[in-house]
Design brief:
alpha+beta, single chain
Amino acid sequence: MVVAPFLRAAIKKPLKLQSPLATGSYTNLSVNRGVAVCHSTTTVQTTLENLVAYDRLRIRTPNKIDYIENELLEQVHKDHQVRYYAKAFPAPLSDPEADAINQIREMIVTPFSDPKIKKKQLKMKSPLVKGEAIIFSHNKGLAGGHASISVPTSLEALCSYDSEKRRESTGTYFLTDETLEDVSPSHFVKYFAIPFPSPLNDRELLTSTIWTQIDQDTFVLVQCPTIVKTHQSDSTRGTRVRATIYQYLEMKRVGPNLTRMNYYSLMNMNGNVPKFFRQSKF
């Protein structure tokens, strides 16, 4: 059923694989029904026993980008398991979600590629991270930032980790971190409150966070003022001031276990922000 089509003279098409050390091909058995047979081959520099042990571990603990459920139903014997899998397919973006991604890319990614715009090099906490900023308004706390780093892990593992961390409470950085709605598996709405020192008013954010997969090697995340109309409101909680943030995060596979992250942000604190606080906080 699986091997025979590749031994026969069936029409096979080449596959672009994550590693240049592997070769792959596939043949469509039913284009309309999405039935296809794939074949790949590679030589691995390890022992057979180590490879089998790793493969068994990987099957038991797939990342959440690949599967949203992975349940052991029965351990028949040590070499036979019955498992239930649910495959995670990216939800198609709505028109407002697609528009938000395109508009934010144009708003904050394009200025950093424009040589006419002056940029300030930033001293980052890690020497592995390169950072730069564009100051649009010193007094109003309006600035754009760009940071990039190569992470020694797979694209899927990094996306899974980033997705989980963004859905979790972010600790002591925020006074409030509240999920208002899970619009879809790739879009949620959150309310944040940021503490400011007296006599300044605390700031608050009302955001949409949206993920999408551009191609097999690229994921993009954006965060912006919420695009969900039922959560759009000018009223604030108490004396807090509504701030805005636009984020664009691109995660791109550049090797078998290497992912390049490019992070862009534009923050507007909507009001006078002292220099010492702006530099320490943002």
